[in-house]
Fold:
Amino acid sequence: MKKASNYIILGLFAIGGITIWLITGQATMLAFSLFVLVIASIIWWSEMKNRKEPIPEEIPTIDSLIAKYGQPDDIIVTDPTHAEELQGAILVYHDKLVYDQREIPKADIVDMTFNNAMIPYLPADYQILIATKDKNQPLVRIHTGNDANWAQNVVIAIKDACSTAPSKEPEVSE
Structure:
């Protein structure tokens, strides 16, 4: 930010010099203003030429979560417009839910419901609220879009996934 303010100050000097030249007609002010503009342009161009592009970090995806946690028992789409993003789906595992890189143990879930988080004069924005026993994350908010029936169906799907945990793998007897 400091470099940008230096260019602004140089620009103001140049504009001030040109203004004084227009008012008084002194050629030295015009020469000074043009000199300041040329120097500022050269400095800016050399900095832009030497600037390195930042290396983009890997953006987490549903596939990266599956690679980290393993194949889920189920995937619940919470927002159809963002279904392929982390905020658009819940990965259901035997003992936990994974939403937006956050693990929510099924045993920690106290209650869940949905509500309309709408601000006046804007379209409805429904979200699912999951109350947990975890003190660091007592309330998890999951946005579901603008359809109340969809939000209700997602809550039902999450409750079903939490109540009907699949049984352990059967033991193989020889």
